[in-house]
Design goal:
Distance between the termini: 57 Å
Low-confidence stretches: none
Radius of gyration: 17 Å
Strand content: 5-15%
Helix content: over 70%
Order of helices and strands: HEHHE
Number of strands: 2
Number of helices: 3
Structural class: mainly alpha
Mean pLDDT: 84
Largest sheet: 2 strands, antiparallel
Shape: elongated
């Protein structure tokens, strides 16, 4: 296996991971919306960005990965791949910080009815 094949595999892995994370996150978000709709949870309006930002980061990573597939210049492909990886990691960091603060003080984010 040469270096180009290894890089192509990594680049596909990053793109597919972003797609998987976005899908799982949107399903969890949908479950949360249903719980709020049926009065199982109450969510503070000030915490809405915590729910929207990870989905935005994963969607942006998928958009960048799509641009990466269309790029023809090697330098541009490398930059777009790195950018997609960073955007995916940033979405994971936001989810991690949300979960950490939620575990520290659940009442700050949700109140069960």
């Amino acid at each position: 296996m040469n270096q180009a094949e290894v890089l192509a595999g990594r680049q596909q892995l990053v793109a597919r991971t972003a797609q998987l994370l976005l899908g799982v996150y949107l399903l969890a978000l949908l479950a949360g919306v249903v719980a709020v709709r049926y009065d199982r949870l109450e969510v503070s309006v000030l915490n809405a960005p915590y729910f929207v930002l990870p989905a935005f980061c994963f969607a942006k990573a998928i958009w960048t990965a799509t641009r990466f597939r269309r790029a023809t210049v090697a330098h541009e492909r490398r930059e777009l791949h790195q950018k997609s990886a960073v955007e995916t990691a940033f979405g994971l960091v936001i989810i991690g910080s949300f979960l950490y603060y939620w575990l520290q003080d659940p009442a700050a984010f949700f109140t069960t009815v």
